[in-house]
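[step 3/7] fold_predict: job queued, chain A
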Amino acid sequence: MPQADTGTVSVALSDAAIKRHAADPTVKQLRDTRRPVLFRYHASRKSGSWYVVTYHKGKPNPYSKIANWPALDTSAFMEALPKILQRLAIDPSASVVVDGWQTVGELLTWYLDRNKRDRNKSTKRKDAIRSVIKCHLRPRLAGEQLADMNQSRLDEKLIWPLQEGYSLAYVRQVFGVLMGAFKQAAKLKLISVNPLAGFTFPDFIAASIEAKPGAIRPDQLRGVLAHLISLKDELPASIALAVMMLAHGTRIGETRLAKWKNINLEDGEWFIPAAEAKTRQELIVPLTSQICHFLRAYREQQKAANYAGAYLFPARNGQPINPKQADQLFKPLGAGEWTSHDLRKVARTCWADLGVEFQVGEFLLNHQLPGISATYIHTTLKQQKRDALECWNAWLNGRGFAELTGYQAETEARQAETPESLDALNRKASSAA
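[step 4/7] structure written:
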């Protein structure tokens, strides 16, 4: 029976005994009758902690917490106990914490499953994490003991071998996935100590990581557009995806998910919901009359092909194309020389050259700017964003964009080539700011 003053019961500790006494709230802890072990219930009574009891000169030392139950069940704890007692006999202050997971591989298995079921991550991000764990973290670290992980071990097993064959930007991405897994496990108290806490990538490699330059220069756009025009009839969906990205600087992930219900051709606006944006911040993209004309024609093409569904870029299963399918659409366009992201990069470069205000450009790209109210920005930059895209589309027309979209805009193209039109844009942007 429990002692009234301490709430302690002496038993032969087992998982069954722990579960049996959990129903009695007066029992605070269980003492093993065979070993110097104590089990204390947590407030929920569904879990608890393992402790060992040691003595020095006949007096008890402070109890040493070893692990949590049921993460470490009774049989596993008892198996580890002899080594724990031996270590404490040598050094009573030694760290003897034992987790339910013993290896990095066990932690990564848990994190991989958690990542798979995380509704807050995009499919692309989940696929990237899965790939990093499968291709790099598991092969190099799965057998490593959690207790042995430290800076030198991580450098030896992962960072330094990776940097020999991959870019520093990619090595940093792999490092970030590993750090995220350990941090999440520590937050949820699934590991008692995070051995990687406080590490940063420069601790291993101090070299700065340069941004990858765009593969398309502004002076190359005329040739790029000529190539797209040659493929216009053969690859209508690929061309439509490229047109939308080049005209607006949007991400491929945001563009491939576009729905017709979010395209307002009357008012000339494209609404990107927060759930479909990388930054989880909704965006309203102005559509020029040229793009509205192009989208009407593209919609008619879809209907002629017996598609009247919800998406601009549908897959055969009725859902939007996935990231891999979107990349496949771009392969014949870039021919290995450039990717979809290079269209976004060259658009941002040209906006700067055309004098588009920095803040306008950043919000067209849907970048996050700290300390600025999204509501205020949307109500005050709407016209600025439209002016910027009107000027950008007109500039592109002088290089073949009008022919690509099927929109005759010779007048706008000539205006975009004159200094007066750019000066007018700058005056509008400054006055609206």
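[step 5/7] annotate
Confidence is low (pLDDT under 50) at residues 1-5, 409-414, 428-433.
The chain has three domains: 8-90, 104-203, 218-432.
exit 0
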